[in-house]
């Protein structure tokens, strides 16, 4: 009897474990399929994302080159060749592509025809690999056929790259070279591996707990991934004010780090595109856009608006006497005073050279005039130290205030008043020209 009970117990145990095995095999297979499928999809998505990033950076590099160095590409020299863009020799100027490399961790190369003439890629000795040629397939696809191409197995100096190649064209549409943007495949694979680790762990836990939890997590993951893709797409089209989906930044995983890096890259690119590198004020291109928006806002809301163009007096004399480095210090000091003065009142634009445009939002001419007098005294009282030199400068300002007028008319009025002040003693504020002129000269 006892033997029978013991036998039944053992049989029940075998059936129990067999049933557990039978019930878990489909679940395990389903879990394995889900994990493999999720991993493969994620890898493809990450590769697509790398492609999008490379394409975006290539677009931005091309745009920044055209902005920083207007004109066509040309190769000058017989033995020591130099690549010119317009009238500027860019062969030894690595500041732009090195800046992109530092901010995006992507290598950049410019080929003239089939020869590498400008690159961030270095050999083991730390020397840039200038003078090497592009792969033959790239020459056929890009240089001959004029197509932009993405490759996931480009080998450069024994390093495999994910690479995006785009044709470099002159103003007449002629292809004169190739633009390369690449990221080492090892970094991409490492990034994919790091991102996949929590997914696999979550998949295993989800397999034990419930499939529904896995589906929910996958949904939020894909939403964040699509949010990042949408963000990069908008940035690629030049929309540097696009906002990233807050859900991406709340995840707390690798995608959050990628989102923060994307925002940091967007901020850096926005500064490169919108800000003057010396003074950190808006440059003329982006400042003009802000100015047009301010005028339209003043018109639509029927609020006062004052525009001022200021010019540093005898700035050429500063450069000629003390040198351009001292001149740069003068520009930076004046810009700092402008930013401090306009805080909460408006903004300043480096309009060109030593000329600045000040925008007073929701501010009448009389109020702006009084405020400008204080700024004028601060500028004339500032002692600018550059080496052993102590430099003092003054500024002349021309003002305009009539939101009903077109922007070009306001700019012309302010400019006319500025030159009236420059031609009549400098170091003054001019609100109108002619018989009823109103000026204030700083003493």
Please give the structural blueprint:
Layout: H1 2-68, E1 73-76, E2 82-85, E3 88-89, H2 95-104, E4 107-112, E5 115-119, H3 136-144, E6 149-156, E7 159-169, E8 175-184, H4 185-209, H5 211-236, H6 246-249, H7 254-274, H8 284-301, E9 305-312, H9 315-322, H10 324-342, E10 346-352, E11 355-361, H11 365-381, E12 384-386, E13 389-391, E14 395-400, H12 407-423, E15 428-430, E16 439-441
Parallel strand pairs: 14-15
Antiparallel strand pairs: 1-2, 2-3, 4-5, 4-8, 6-7, 7-8, 9-11, 9-14, 10-11, 12-13, 15-16
Helix pairs in contact: 1-2, 1-4, 1-5, 4-5, 5-7, 9-10, 10-11
Describe what you observe in this structure.
It is a single chain. The chain has 12 helices and 16 strands. The chain has helices at 2-68, 95-104, 136-144, 185-209, 211-236, 246-249, 254-274, 284-301, 315-322, 324-342, 365-381, 407-423; strands at 73-76, 82-85, 88-89, 107-112, 115-119, 149-156, 159-169, 175-184, 305-312, 346-352, 355-361, 384-386, 389-391, 395-400, 428-430, 439-441. Strand 4 (107-112) and strand 5 (115-119) form a beta hairpin. Helix 9 crosses helix 10 (324-342). The protein is globular, with a radius of gyration of 31 Å. Mean pLDDT is 81; it is low at 1-20, 210-215 and 433-438.
